[in-house]
Each structure stands twice: as structure tokens, then as C-alpha cells.
Specification:
- About 45% of the residues lie in helices and about 15% in strands.
- The chain has about 240 residues and is an alpha/beta fold.
- The longest helix has 29 residues.
- It has a 6-stranded parallel sheet with strand order 3-2-1-4-5-6.
- The chain contains 8 helices and 6 strands.
Amino acid sequence: MSGPGPSKYKVQQASLKFANFEPQKKYQHMASLTAMFDPENESAPGHYGSSQTALLLLDFHSAFIEKAGGRRAAMALQVAAKMRIWAKSRGIHIIHCLIDFNATPHATCKDAQRLLSGAETMRLGGAGEPSELLTGAEDDATFTRKLGYVSARKSPGLDDFLRKNGIRSLILAGLSTSGCVMRTALAATDAEYVVTAISDACADRDEDLHDVVLGKILKNRGYVVTAVEFQEGFVEATIGR
């Protein structure tokens, strides 16, 4: 025989709690955006103007988009392409970060032979970036890293370029979320950069992992917003600067 069911009061309380969850979550998100674009907050991207900000386009190799980025990859590319156009119009630095498939992995790299085999395939086609990211790219910077390194910060010359140009805030878009995006973000925050991941400009073959990395890991170390949210907040924060 089953026990008594929940009281009418408890059911009403649970219903009210559920009904208030979404508005409360929305309010918290808006409060987070306000803090993110506070010009007085040195730990927020809104503190830094265009000349101190860079958009990093991570591992948008054509073959990665087609085969390794999952179903969100094509959309992430389109968002990143539009983000790049917007960033260029604001005077934000554009940096392409790619893998050098002609390089040999370092001696302690696990599964180096597998990587070399994959690199050979990439050299036959798919190593380059799609045209959407290359229009008017004369002023863009490009840095490549050795096969086997995951973080873009292992690209020779990248840190020197960032320091030379006084860049303190990094915007990340790319593939994969759990690979290059995450590893670059964590390494960059350790190097005292302000880091923002553009959620709809990143993709991963494992969509659950994509959500965990953005929603749990990177939010604890940096900022995670959509392209539109970043653009609107950045414009408002940098008016007159």
C-alpha cells in the first residue's frame, strides 16, 4: 500500500519554485553581462578597448569543420566569420591560430605516429581555412604550432605579438571546444589575459562535452557569451574610447 502523496501546499511550493527558475536564471545572466562589461573592472573584457583586444580564430581547418567539429561546426564557422567582420570594423586584432601539418611532433608526444598519419591526409586537402575567414585578411596575423601541441599559446611568436601590441583581452572562437579552445583559454588565463569564449562560435564532436567545457570549466576561469552578447556589451562599454 502506498503512503500519502505530497500535500497540496508542497505541490504549490514546488510549482512556484519551478515557475520562478527561468526568470531568476535570466536575471543572473543579465547581472553577469553587466559585470563583464564594466569599464572599471580590470578583470573584465569591457575594461579594454579595441587596441588591447584580439579575436583568436582557433583551428578552423576545413577538414576539421567537415569531419571533426560535429553538427555545430558549420554554424560555428558562420558565427566566427561574422564575428571577424565585426571585430575588424572595430579595430580589434584578428589572429588565426593553426596547426603546422608539416612539422614533426615533439619526442614525448603520445600517439605521434597517428598524428603524422593524420597530418599526411590533411596535407592532401583540408588543411587550409575556408574562404569565409580569409576575405580581406591582409592585415590579419597568423601563427602556427607544431603538430602535437593543443594550446594555441604554443605557437612561436604569438605571445611576443600579444605583448608587443599591448593586448590584454582575448576573444576565442574555434574547434574543438574541449581541445584547442579549452587548452588555449586555460593557458591564457594563467598568463594573466582576460579570456572570453564565444559559445556559438565554438563546436565539438561531443556536444555534451562542449556544454560542460563552456558551462562549467571556462565560466570559472573566464567569460562565456554569444557573439551578439559580446558585440552589444563591448560597444556599450567602449563608447567614447
